[in-house]
Amino acid sequence: MLPTQKGGIGRRAELYGSAYKLAWKQIPPAERRAQPDLPLRIYASVRRQVKEGAVDPIVIASAAVKEVLLLLETH
Fold first, then answer.
1. pTM value?
2. pLDDT value at residue 59
3. Residue 23 CB-half CA count within 13 A
4. What angle do CA 63, 69, 71 make, to 5 degrees?
5. Residue 38 confidence (pLDDT)
6. Cα separation, 48 vs 4, whole angstroms
7. pLDDT digits (tens, 9 = 90+) for 33-73
8. Is 28 helix (H, G, I), strand (E, B) or coil?
9. Residues with Cβ < 8 Å from 43, sequence gap 6 or more?
């Protein structure tokens, strides 16, 4: 693996971790308990956004929370 690839993977992993933690903190505890699949939904949203090129963990987390909570409201 080339050094630039290794650094890119590390940056994406750090970005993912930061965005996921920020998103998880924004989910109310009652919702966390009521919806056991929330971690998976947040994971999917964050992963998709990072894969699409998003680079700001705050923006990624906000979008993930909006997606998850909107999905919960519609079901």
1. 0.82
2. 97
3. 30
4. 100
5. 93
6. 22
7. 988 999 999 999 999 999 999 999 999 999 999 999 888 77
8. coil
9. 20
- Residue 61: which of 40, 45, 41, 74 has the closest Cα? 45
Q: What's the rounded mean pLDDT across residues 9-13?
A: 89
Q: How far apart are CA 53 and CA 60, in angstroms?
A: 10
**In sequence order, what are the residues at sequence separation of 6 or more whose Cβ sits closer than 8 angstroms to the Cβ of residue 46?**
16, 19, 20, 23, 60, 61, 64
Distance CA 69, CA 24 (A): 12
Tally of domains within the chain: 1
Provide the residue range defining the domain that includes 70: 3-74
**3 state SS of 37:** coil
Q: Which two tokens stand for residue 35?
A: 């919806």
